[in-house]
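YM 10:42: Argininosuccinate lyase sequence, as discussed on the call
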Amino acid sequence: MKRTWIVAGVVAALALSGCARKTALEPAPGQDLPPVPYGASEPPSSTELLELDPQAAPQRSTELRRRSEEREDDPFDIPPE
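YM 10:58: structure's back
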């Protein structure tokens, strides 16, 4: 019984050791990096390629309403039958 726990512990330690490995990002074999943008002198780095543009991830507005406002009429708000 103790032997199976030891083996399970070793397997878990080996599995977890691979999780923290950090290496430089490189394209997959057979793939190229995206072309250099027009007007740029050098290709963007991997961190620049991973950044989202503002339209892909807009800022969330968490401002609460300060007073009640009338809702506009919704033509698609049909009562259930």
